[in-house]
Specification:
By secondary structure, the chain is mainly α. The chain has eleven helices and four strands, in the order ββααααββααααααα. The chain has helices at about 15-35, 40-60, 65-90, 95-120, 145-165, 170-180, 180-185, 190-215, 225-235, 245-265, 265-280; strands spanning about 5, 10, 135, 140.
C-alpha cells in the first residue's frame, strides 16, 4: 500500500496493487496447473466486469446477481478455453508450448472483440459491490470499494494458500506444477486439474476486474492492458511461492504511483518499461525464485 499527500488529505493507492496481484496469481494458477501462460486472463476480467455492468444498466438487475453472472461467464470462458483450444492443440502437438501460446493470444483478441460486440464498444461504469461513501479517519480518506478490494484480495490469497496446502485438488495442482510427467505417471487426473486451474484462474481474474471496474470503469479493449500488467507483475514476483504476486503487485503499483507523483503522469510508461527490461534481462526468475523439488 502506498500513499500520496494531496493538500491535507491522504489518498490510498492500494487498489492498483491488489488488482495487479489478482491478475498475476490467476496467471500463476494456470502456470502450475497447465504449464504455460494464458494471456486470455485479461479478457476474463473484462468479460466479468462488462457483463455485470451490462446487466445492471441494460436490464436493471440488482448488483449481486449481475456480479455473480459476470463471474460465472468468466469461469465458463476459462473452462472452454482449455477444452476447445488448449487441449486439442496439446493433443496434436504434445510437449510444444508455442502453438498453445499463440492460440490463447488469439483467444485474447477474440474475447475482446466479442465483448465489444455483445456489451457495446463504449466504456461502461463498474458495478458497486457495497453502498456508502468513503471512510474518513482524520485527514485520511479511503473509499469503501478500495477497502473491499483489499479484503477480497487478502481473502483470495489466504484461501488459495490453504487450498493448495490442505485440499486434495490443491495438492494435486502443486504436484502437477512441480512435475507434470511424474504426476501423470502416478495416475493423477492431469486433464481434470487443468480444467480446475483454468476455471479458478478465470474466477480470480473476474473478481479483480469486477472490483477494479467500479473505480476505473471498463472498456472492451482493455484486456491486453490487463494481461500485460498482470504478466509483468508475475515476472517481478517469480513463481517461488503463491503469495509472491501479492508482494509484487503492491511493489509494482507503489513504484508506478511514486513515479507519477514525482515525475508526472507520462513517467509511468517509462518506469514500467524500465522494470520490464530489468527483470527480463537480469532477473528473469523474479524476486521469489521457484525451487525445484527432488
Amino acid at each position: 500500500i502506498s500513499a500520496c499527500l494531496v493538500g491535507s488529505e491522504m489518498c490510498i493507492r492500494d487498489r492498483v496493487g491488489c488488482f495487479y496481484a489478482l491478475i498475476a496469481v490467476a496467471y500463476l494458477i494456470i502456470l502450475q496447473g497447465a504449464g504455460f501462460f494464458n494471456f486470455a486472463i485479461g479478457p476474463y476480467a473484462i468479460v466479468a466486469a462488462m457483463g455485470a455492468s451490462w446487466a445492471v444498466t441494460s436490464f436493471g438487475w440488482a448488483p449481486l446477481p449481475a456480479i455473480l453472472s459476470g463471474l460465472a461467464t468468466a469461469v465458463v470462458l476459462g473452462v472452454l478455453t482449455e477444452l476447445l483450444v488448449v487441449r486439442p492443440i496439446d493433443a496434436r502437438a504434445p510437449g510444444q508450448e508455442l502453438p498453445a501460446l499463440v492460440a490463447v493470444v488469439a483467444v485474447l483478441f477474440a474475447l475482446e472483440q466479442g465483448a465489444g460486440s455483445l456489451y457495446g464498444r463504449l466504456p461502461l461504469p463498474g458495478v458497486s459491490w457495497i453502498e456508502g461513501e468513503s471512510v474518513s479517519v482524520g485527514t485520511l480518506h479511503v473509499d469503501r470499494e478500495a477497502i473491499l478490494l483489499v479484503i477480497v484480495t487478502l481473502a483470495v490469497f489466504a484461501a488459495l494458500m490453504l487450498w493448495t496446502r490442505y485440499a486434495r485438488y490443491g495438492q494435486m495442482l502443486r504436484a502437477i506444477g512441480d512435475n507434470k510427467q511424474a504426476a501423470a505417471m502416478l495416475g493423477l487426473p492431469v486433464n481434470r486439474i487443468r480444467l480446475v486451474a483454468f476455471g479458478l484462474a478465470a474466477l480470480v481474474a473476474g473478481l479483480g476486474g469486477s472490483l477494479w471496474a467500479f473505480k476505473a470503469g471498463v472498456r472492451f479493449d482493455a484486456g491486453l492492458d490487463y494481461a500485460l500488467d498482470g504478466f509483468l507483475t508475475l515476472v517481478i514476483a517469480g513463481t517461488g511461492v503463491l503469495w509472491a504476486p501479492l508482494v509484487a503487485g503492491l511493489l509494482f503499483a507503489g513504484i508506478q504511483q511514486l513515479s507519477i507523483f514525482y515525475l508526472g503522469g507520462p513517467a509511468i510508461h517509462y518506469v514500467t518499461l524500465i522494470l520490464a527490461v530489468v527483470f527480463f534481462a537480469w532477473r528473469p526468475g523474479g524476486i521469489f525464485v521457484r525451487r525445484a523439488r527432488v
